[in-house]
TrEMBL record:
This protein's record includes keyword Transcription regulation: yes
Entry-linked Gene3D superfamilies: Homeodomain-like (1.10.10.60)
Protein name: Helix-turn-helix domain-containing protein
Pfam families in UniProt: HTH_18 (PF12833)
Organism for this UniProt entry: Kribbella pittospori
Keywords assigned by UniProt, alphabetized: DNA-binding, Transcription, Transcription regulation
Record-annotated HTH araC/xylS-type domain positions: 211-312
Domain of life assignment: Bacteria
SUPFAM superfamilies in UniProt: Homeodomain-like
Any one Gene Ontology molecular-function term assigned to this protein's record: DNA-binding transcription factor activity
InterPro entries in UniProt: AraC_XylS_family_regulators, Homeodomain-like_sf, HTH_AraC, HTH_AraC-typ_CS
Length: 312
């Protein structure tokens, strides 16, 4: 679902921002009209806004309930201790402290992530050793390369997926996208998670572990599975299940899950009526949101295009 907000009055802009993010007070316009446009798209656990403010003004905001991820295209955003300009990425966490600063004609992508999604993805890296609360060390990626990676991920999520409403109805697509973005945030912005392997994980990465994991995946390919889910079903840590798949199959748990879903899509294409469905619809149902990549993977696995299978 998408919503577009446009206004030139500070009261309307302030009211929309307060309803969307947290209670916000704006000042500095002195009664001068300014054009503001926000185009919002919704996914479970994630919203994406194209935000454009035609003014230079100050703001005071209450504490946030969600993580806010800002990718600046032009203009600037100032928060305490940091100023962001074109090309920068900012992460604003929820918490007890409000924010004050300045908006300088910003044009940006603003993504809002549910904290429970980030915590769930973080649990994969924490091997079950979840901290009292996930915390980030600063507001931005650690390096220039990390900033570029996170910015590219935001662009990909927005331009390739959130602008395609046809994909919104597929739970596997929406949850995978949300988790992908959460994983990129955790990988690029310094935080209190850790992915160091340990001796116990290496010991648990044996064939019986692999068999339990494979059985679980093959019974549940339609579900929104994470590495943590697969590891729990196999009775081992996240690291152990990753090592088991790498050691015995030279792949990863999620790559194996994609193979199983590809096989399910193959079966559906063989059984489907081409007058009643499409390759894209079947691919999306099994979590493949990029038609070109799906076609390439399918051709590699089955020696023909998915459209040939559907129409044969």
């Amino acid at each position: 679902m998408a919503v577009v907000f446009e206004s030139t009055t500070i009261d309307e802009i302030e009211a929309f921002l307060s309803e969307t993010y947290t209670r916000v007070n704006l000042s500095g316009l002195n009664g001068v009209p300014t054009r503001t446009r926000i185009a919002r798209t919704f996914l479970p656990g994630l919203t994406s806004d194209e935000f454009q403010l035609g003014a230079d003004l100050t703001y005071r905001a209450d504490p946030l309930d969600n993580y806010i991820l800002c990718s600046l295209r032009s203009g600037g955003v100032e928060i305490p201790e940091y100023s962001a300009g074109p090309g920068d990425v900012l992460l604003l966490p929820p918490g007890e402290r409000g924010l004050t600063g300045r908006l300088r004609h910003p044009r940006e992508l603003v993504l809002m992530l549910d904290p429970t999604v980030l915590q769930r993805v973080a649990a994969t890296a924490l091997e079950g050793r979840r901290p009292a609360a996930l915390s980030f060390h600063g507001h931005r990626p650690a390096t220039t390369a990390a900033r570029r990676q996170l910015r590219d991920a935001i662009d990909y999520v927005h331009t390739q997926t959130l602008t395609n409403p046809a994909l919104f109805s597929e739970p596997l697509i929406s949850t995978t996208i949300t988790q992908f973005l959460a994983a990129m945030v955790l990988a690029t912005v310094p935080n209190n998670t850790s992915t160091d392997p340990n001796t116990e994980s290496r010991r648990d990465a044996h064939p019986a572990t692999l068999r339990r994991a494979i059985s679980y995946i093959e019974v549940n390919p339609h579900r929104d599975l994470t590495i943590a889910d697969i590891a729990t079903a196999a009775g081992v840590t996240n690291r152990a299940i990753q090592l088991a798949f790498r050691r015995h199959l030279d792949t990863t748990p999620l790559a194996y899950l994609r193979q199983v879903r590809l096989a399910q899509a193959h079966a559906d294409l063989q059984a489907a009526d081409p007058t009643q469905t499409t390759v894209t619809a079947i691919a999306a149902h099994w979590g493949f949101h990029h038609p070109g990549r799906f076609a390439n993977q399918y051709r590699t696995a089955y020696g023909q295009s998915p459209s040939t299978t559907l129409n044969s």
